[in-house]
Design goal:
The complex is a heterotrimer of chains A (100), B (185) and C (652). Chain B has 185 residues and is mainly α. Chain B is built from 7 helices and no strands. Among the domains of chain B are: 79 residues, Four Helix Bundle (Hemerythrin (Met), subunit A) (Up-down Bundle); 45 residues, no CATH class. Chain C is 69% helix and 5% strand. In chain C, strands 1-2 form a two-stranded antiparallel sheet. The mean pLDDT of chain C is 88. The chains are: A mainly alpha (100), B mainly alpha (185), C mainly alpha (652).
């Protein structure tokens, strides 16, 4: 069996890549995708630890994460569409009306 | 055998993730993400989680990614980053921070996990059975499970309301035709 | 019975005040109610005095305590009234003259749009004056002291539409504050050295509160002040009290407010600024006489301030054209007589002069009010002349008042002034005597001048038709004229051995002031009479003969000979100008600097600068809120990295 640490390391790298995606990309949809990537990285760590401890609870948590992520994506994308309707762009830098 | 499979999938997942944030075209990004999701689903299987493997494929790779692709194409937002970057200094700083975060996360991972192989035996053989997961869902995690249902309902309503606002804006010129079911958020 | 009766004396005017403030809206009702209540107060005072007279001499002191006013620690100040011979004569003067002036005001203030308010103020004044003279402790006296000051302010500025009146009111108030501050300090000093503020021992709630006047001998030998210059306690306290008296009783150098106070209605001048309030200082000095007597140093100051005031004001009165300003300076001068009498130890004589002066000066002011009324608000004597025929009642009563003031035998002023002078002779105050004698000659002269200018000659300003005033005004004049003629009876000296009813007042005041009656000095009386008659005649004849030279807006006939001296006298020795230059001017400069430089640049600069500073900072900080989600996310990440590093370091 592959040691849990390998999985968790992979999870850490994937998570960091997701963070970088959020920070660097300006396309709102890609930013969103990066968020999903971060969620997945977290899921991976959860499942890895669940396997190590032989506790199904970790898997239940992942189940919830996936469900909530589905809801989140639905609402988030609806918001993106709404913003796009008024701004005619998906560039998050254009959505800066709340600046001081 | 396990190791070979793991490293292969891990490489595919990493490649997909990096390619996703690097790709200029949003459609490509979505497809690379799909690749990453698939790889992770395989990792789930390696970790004796067949049920999660299933829903990872059906919900993430299926429903969510389709939704992403659909929106990208609907909005024509494949390439929005043609314009000059307004925060040129932000990118290097983000990379530094990302590196910091990576170091911290990896240290934590190494310190937190065990390098030994996970336990085997009979208990390990029975682990990951979808039936046991379902049983836990409907007993110990019944309340969170139901709350999840409510969250999904709220999400559905939210999406409908967000749509309705647009309809309202269009029908505002003719108030008589305003649908009586319109709900203000 | 006297215990509750004396409460009614100040309460009746207070009731009048409350009625006039809250209930009455009609001129006639207001005047009648106000007059009737003060009249009732007078009757009660008569009853109370008679009852007091029925007591044995040593027991003639009634103290009625309402409640313990202030009680903290060792301090216990009762809210109590005192009724003894000294108080009784003051109460009779205040309510008697006050009542007549109320009646007079009915005629004088007729048709004024704010007459109800006027009577309310007048009633409040009488209440406060009664509190002042009936207080059994310093604090209550101070309450009355400030109360009459307030009423004085309100009544001087009664016609506040006139800038002059408003300014005069403020001036009176401000100048009085100087004296009041000294009075307060005196009160504090008294409390710190005696531990009490009541005048005499009094029982409150079964406890005896000691009176400080009975402990004055304890002060002997006690000193305070810096080591290089110690001051006897008695001197310190009495000197502070003296400063208080100079403010209220318009003595040098604080007399400047009184002539200006004539901007108020004339009955107010008669009541407050001649008969009652301005005598409060003299009353207070008589009341605290033991402290003054304990300090020869202060006594000589008192005497000299009195003499100096009498001379300065007497000379200033020579050169005034305003009918009321003559009387105002004359009042200051006569107050100087009283204060000088106090300083020479003749407190009974001072009170005697206070009473007679209260009567005849009220008469003169009311008479001048009648003249002003009859000549349609003319106050400049250059515009008058020959009013003898048009206003006979006013003329005759005025003549009595002027005679009394000048000291013509046998009118009231002669006896009281003569008693002061006689005391100066018998006690050997020769320099003071000379000063006071000159002042009394001046008095006779300027009264002769005034009578001549008003009533003799021919009317110089043809623009008005002079007429006699109505009943409400002439009746009080006649009553006061009778009073001014016979008031000397209350304290006649022993003219011949075995004379009945001699020095009644001195005997009456004996339980309070412990004074023996002075001896009659025939030589001095002769000199004084000759001087008064001669100077009065001189003043009258000079201005009657030169009546043709007096022109409206022109110079005095004497100006040709005196020139600059005349100007000096008219400006009252430039004391006012001195204050203007030395005090008011610098204050104005400082005020202007503060208002025009310090406030806009210093204060406003600070305030506005603070606002600008934060605005400036906010403009900088605002830039952080760029609105870019990526920025926020980055900052958020930085925070996460920092927190996680920290946690990692701790967990290591």
């Amino acid at each position: 069996m592959v040691p849990t640490t390998f999985y968790v390391l992979l999870s850490a790298v994937l998570f960091t890549i997701g963070v970088l995606g959020v920070l660097i990309r300006r396309n709102a949809i890609v930013v969103f995708m990066s968020v999903e990537l971060m969620l997945n990285a977290a899921n991976l760590a959860l499942v890895a630890y669940a396997r190590e401890r032989l506790a199904v609870d970790g898997q239940v948590l992942v189940f919830f994460v996936i469900t909530v992520a589905a809801a989140e994506v639905a609402v988030g994308l609806a918001l993106l569409v709404a913003i796009f309707k008024s701004k005619r762009t998906a560039d998050i830098d254009e959505v800066s009306m709340l600046r001081g | 055998m396990d190791f070979v499979l793991f490293f292969l999938t891990a490489a595919i997942a990493l490649a997909g993730a990096i390619a996703m944030i690097v790709a200029r075209n949003a459609v490509h990004s979505a497809l690379f993400l799909l690749l990453n999701f698939g790889a992770i689903a395989v990792l789930f299987l390696l970790l004796q989680s067949p049920f999660l493997f299933t829903i990872q494929l059906s919900i993430y790779a299926g429903a969510i990614m389709v939704l992403f692709l659909f929106v990208v194409m609907l909005l024509g937002a494949e390439q929005v980053e043609a314009a000059q970057d307004k925060l040129p200094w932000q990118q290097p700083l983000a990379l530094v921070m990302g590196a910091g975060l990576l170091v911290i996360a990896m240290i934590t991972a190494v310190r937190g996990g065990s390098n030994d192989a996970p336990p085997g035996g009979e208990a390990a053989e029975a682990f990951g059975d979808p039936a046991s997961l379902g049983e836990l869902l409907f007993t110990k995690y019944l309340l969170p499970f139901q709350i999840t249902g409510i969250i999904l309902l709220v999400a559905v309503i939210g999406v409908v309301v967000l749509n309705q606002q647009r309809n309202q804006a269009q029908t505002e010129e003719t108030p008589g035709e305003r649908p009586s079911s319109s709900v203000q958020p | 019975m006297l215990n509750w009766l004396i409460w009614l004396i100040p309460l009746l005017p207070l009731l009048g005040f409350l009625l006039n403030v809250f209930v009455i809206r009609q001129e006639r009702q207001a005047g009648l109610v106000a007059s009737a209540l003060v009249g009732g107060s007078f009757l009660l005072a008569v009853v109370a005095t008679v009852m007091l007279g029925g007591m044995p001499e040593e027991e003639r002191r009634v103290q009625a305590i309402a409640w313990e006013w202030i009680g903290t620690g060792t301090m216990s100040i009762p809210f109590g009234l005192l009724f003894d011979p000294l108080t009784s004569v003051m109460v009779l003067l205040v309510t008697g003259v006050g009542g007549l002036i109320h009646v007079y005001s009915l005629g004088y203030m007729h048709g004024d749009p704010r007459v109800v308010r006027y009577f309310a103020y007048l009633n409040l004044f009488v209440t406060m004056m009664l509190m002042l003279v009936m207080a059994n402790n310093m604090l209550l006296l101070f309450l009355g002291w400030e109360g009459v000051g307030l009423c004085s302010f309100l009544l001087i500025g009664f016609w506040f539409e006139r800038k002059v009146a408003a300014a005069a009111a403020v001036k009176a108030f401000v100048v009085n504050r100087i004296g009041d501050a000294a009075f307060l300090l005196a009160m504090l000093a008294i409390f710190s050295h005696f531990g009490t503020l009541t005048f005499y021992d009094v029982e409150v709630n079964g406890q005896i509160i000691p009176g400080f006047l009975e402990q004055v001998p304890n002060l002997l030998g006690q000193t305070f002040g810096p080591e290089w210059q110690t001051i006897a306690v008695a001197t310190g306290i009495s000197f502070l009290l003296l400063i208080g008296a100079t403010g209220k009783s318009a003595q040098f150098p604080l007399f400047v407010w009184l002539p200006d106070a004539m901007a108020g209605p004339t009955p107010v001048s008669a009541l407050i600024h001649a008969a009652t309030m301005v005598t409060a200082g003299v009353y207070m000095m008589a009341r605290t006489e033991p402290i003054f007597v304990a300090s020869p140093a202060t006594q000589s100051w008192v005497a000299w301030i009195g003499v100096l005031t009498a001379l300065i004001a007497g000379t200033a009165a020579l050169a005034q054209w305003d009918i009321k300003r003559v009387l105002a300076y004359s009042t200051v001068s006569q107050l100087g007589f009283m204060v000088a009498a106090c300083g020479m130890g003749a407190y009974a004589a001072a009170i005697f002069h206070l009473l007679t002066h209260g009567i005849f000066k009220a008469l003169l002011f009311l008479g001048s009010g009648s003249v002003i009324h009859g000549t349609h608000d003319t106050q400049d004597m250059r515009k008058m002349g020959g009013l003898r025929t048009a206003m006979p009642t006013t003329y005759w009563t005025y003549l009595v008042g002027a005679g009394a003031l000048a000291g013509i035998v046998p009118l009231a002023g002669f006896w009281s002034k003569d008693e002061i002078l006689a005391h100066a002779v018998s006690a050997g105050y020769w320099p003071q005597l000379i000063g006071l004698f000159i002042a009394s000659l001046l008095t006779a002269f300027y009264m002769g001048r005034q009578v001549s200018l008003i009533f003799f000659g021919t009317q110089r300003d043809p623009h008005y038709h002079a007429h006699e005033s109505g009943r409400a005004m002439t009746v009080p004049l006649v009553i006061l004229a009778v009073g001014a003629a016979i008031a000397g009876l209350m304290n006649l000296p022993t003219l011949f051995s075995g004379m009945p009813a001699a020095h009644l007042l001195t005997d009456w005041l004996k339980p309070v002031l412990h004074e023996e009656a002075g001896k009659f000095n025939p030589l001095l009386a002769l000199f004084a009479t000759i001087g008064a008659v001669g100077m009065g005649y001189l003043g009258w004849s000079v201005y009657t003969r030169n009546a043709a030279k007096v022109k409206v807006g022109g110079q005095d006939p004497a100006y040709y000979y005196t020139g600059d001296i005349w100007d000096t006298l008219e400006a009252a020795w430039y004391v006012d100008t001195l204050y203007q230059r030395a005090v008011v001017g610098p204050f104005r400069t400082i005020g202007n600097f503060l208002a025009q430089v310090f406030d806009p640049q210093g204060i406003d600069g600070l305030v506005v600068g603070t606002g600008r500073f934060f605005g400036w900072v906010a403009t900088g900080v605002r830039q952080l809120q760029s609105g870019y989600v990526r920025m926020y996310a980055l900052v958020f990440t930085i925070g996460v990295v920092l927190v996680l590093s920290f946690m990692l370091m701790i967990a290591w």
